């Protein structure tokens, strides 16, 4: 018979206690491992959630909507980067006017570059959002109303017309296309607009966005006469070639300015930022030109003979407003006015007589020249010409001299020096600008706009009725009263002045 297996040795109480202790230790270690793993897992999960929030959820949050277009946080940050790139480009261009401007504009480039790194944490700039809304309104309305788009060649032409002279003054690339061609030529040659059959499906290229014109920083201002010189319009292919060269010049100038601040400083903008920013800006301009040409076609445009501005001079014979009998005072001065008119008929020089005989202290030293005014009588200085004076001036040809006529100021003899009538191209530009402003205002009313979160509307003053009229030009300004001399103080009795000095 096979031997029976030996029974397992019986464990004593000590062995049992040791085994129990080992099991508890193992369980404790497993719990520690599980707890540590859970803690690490939660930390990783929280980190991933935070990363997803910061990199995915926050950038995708909407800031505003216009029609079917949405501006997300990421889009808004891109808009801000491009706005800085445009401002830097503008500063570089203005610096080319000379050393007196260079320090002012170039010195601001370092600050603008540093701000780019803080755009994500900065408060939303409502001005940037408003400009995006305006841009989308134009893009969508142009597509909806006309089905038009602009190509890269048209954008490059607009770009070179402003910045070509500052960064690449290359001659002999001018376009033979006239400045104001027929609407079809505008669409196909000058601005290369494409009419897309079926306007509801017509869309602008994704890159043809429409940011506003770059603005100068608050402290950077140019004298009123300092403007960028215009450049002759280049042919589309030539403009595209020059555009690439100019972009390199602009970007390298930006890098040079940063290197002068710190040779190790890394730029916060790329050449692609500049390329997209400037393309967007001039796509706006080219698209606006297309829409204007559609609103007011060249063909059939009627030139107006009505002057844009009237330039006159006068001899004024003032009637005292404080006279007891005003009618008698007017009658008495009419004889003086007729005498002056007779001298003019006899060949007297108008300017000379104005200096000698006019009572209007504002105009007589300048030969009687009155501030120029438009057809409605408004001057550039925000004043209004007297209605009687305006009526007489409107009815005179250039060089003609009026008979004496009456206003509330007294009697006047007027000569029209010039009736400024714009040439056809200027009239067409003005008509197109006026029509575009009315059209875009209508499109703003038609286009749904949503700000996220909704903004409290800026309180506006309640309308008070008709706008206040402009102040009337004083056509017979009296001389300013001569100030009385300051009285010489009398010496005090019994007090002797003590000489000063050594």
Q: What features would you describe in this structure?
A:
This protein has helices at residues 13-60, 73-95, 99-106, 109-116, 126-146, 152-167, 183-190, 236-261, 271-295, 326-345, 350-357, 387-394, 424-446, and strands at residues 62-66, 69-72, 309-318, 405-407, 410-420, 449-451. The chain is mainly alpha-helical. The strands form 2 sheets. A 3-stranded antiparallel sheet has the order 2-1-6. Strands 3-5-4 form a 3-stranded antiparallel sheet, sandwiched between helices. Helix 2 (73-95) packs antiparallel against helix 3 (99-106) and helix 2 (73-95) packs across helix 9. The radius of gyration is 39 Å and the shape is elongated. Mean pLDDT is 80; it is low at 172-232 and 490-502.
Strand content: 5-15%
> First CA to last CA: what distance?
150 Å
Spatial ordering of strands, largest sheet: 2-1-6
Succession of helices and strands: HEEHHHHHHHHEHHHEEHE
Helix content: 40-55%
Q: How many individual helices?
A: 13
Q: What structural category do the secondary elements indicate?
A: mainly alpha
Task: Summarize the topology.
Blueprint: H1 13-60, E1 62-66, E2 69-72, H2 73-95, H3 99-106, H4 109-116, H5 126-146, H6 152-167, H7 183-190, H8 236-261, H9 271-295, E3 309-318, H10 326-345, H11 350-357, H12 387-394, E4 405-407, E5 410-420, H13 424-446, E6 449-451
Antiparallel strand pairs: 1-2, 1-6, 3-5, 4-5
Helix pairs in contact: 2-3, 2-4, 2-9, 5-9, 6-8, 6-9, 9-13
């Amino acid at each position: 018979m096979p031997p029976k297996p030996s029974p397992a040795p019986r464990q004593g109480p000590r062995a049992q206690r040791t085994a129990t202790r080992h099991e508890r230790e193992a369980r404790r270690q497993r719990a520690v491992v599980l707890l540590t793993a859970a803690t690490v897992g939660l930390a990783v999960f929280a980190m991933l959630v935070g990363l997803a929030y910061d990199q995915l959820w926050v950038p995708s949050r909407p800031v505003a909507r216009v029609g079917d277009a949405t501006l997300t946080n990421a889009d808004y940050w891109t808009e801000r980067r491009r706005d800085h790139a445009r401002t830097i480009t503008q500063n570089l261009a203005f610096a080319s006017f000379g050393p007196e401007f260079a320090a002012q504009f170039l010195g601001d480039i370092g600050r603008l570059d540093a701000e780019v790194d803080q755009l994500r944490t900065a408060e939303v700039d409502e001005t940037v959002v408003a400009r995006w809304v305006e841009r989308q309104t134009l893009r969508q309305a142009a597509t909806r109303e006309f089905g038009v788009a602009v190509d890269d060649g048209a954008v490059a032409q607009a770009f070179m017309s402003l910045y070509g002279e500052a960064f690449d003054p290359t001659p002999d690339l001018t376009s033979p296309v006239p400045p104001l061609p027929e609407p079809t030529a505008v669409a196909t040659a000058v601005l290369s607009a494409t009419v897309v059959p079926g306007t509801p499906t017509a869309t602008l290229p994704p890159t043809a966005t429409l940011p506003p014109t770059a603005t100068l920083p608050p402290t950077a201002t140019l004298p009123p006469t300092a403007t960028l010189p215009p450049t002759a319009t280049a042919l589309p292919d030539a403009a595209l070639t020059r555009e690439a060269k100019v972009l390199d010049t602009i970007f390298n100038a930006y890098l040079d300015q940063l290197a002068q601040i710190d040779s190790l400083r890394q730029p916060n903008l790329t050449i692609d930022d500049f390329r997209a920013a400037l393309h967007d800006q001039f796509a706006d301009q080219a698209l606006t030109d297309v829409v204007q040409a559609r609103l007011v076609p060249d063909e059939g445009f009627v030139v107006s003979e009505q002057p844009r501005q009237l330039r006159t001079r006068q001899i004024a014979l003032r009637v005292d407003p404080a006279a007891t009998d005003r009618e008698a005072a007017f009658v008495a001065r009419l004889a003086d006015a007729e005498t002056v008119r007779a001298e003019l008929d006899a060949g007297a020089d108008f300017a000379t007589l104005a200096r000698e005989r006019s009572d209007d202290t504002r105009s007589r030293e300048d030969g009687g020249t009155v501030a120029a005014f438009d057809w409605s009588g408004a001057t550039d200085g925000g004043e209004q010409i007297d209605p009687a004076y305006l009526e007489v001036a409107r009815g005179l040809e250039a060089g003609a001299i009026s008979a004496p006529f009456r206003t509330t100021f007294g009697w006047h003899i007027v000569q029209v020096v010039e009736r400024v009538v714009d040439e056809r191209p200027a009239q067409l530009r003005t008509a197109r600008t006026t029509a575009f402003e009315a059209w875009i205002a209508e499109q703003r009313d038609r286009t749904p706009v949503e700000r996220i979160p909704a903004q409290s509307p800026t309180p506006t003053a309640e309308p008070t009725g008709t706008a206040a009229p402009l102040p009337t030009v004083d056509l017979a300004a009296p001389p300013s009263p001569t100030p009385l001399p300051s009285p010489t103080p009398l010496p005090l009795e019994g007090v002797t002045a003590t000489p000063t000095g050594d």
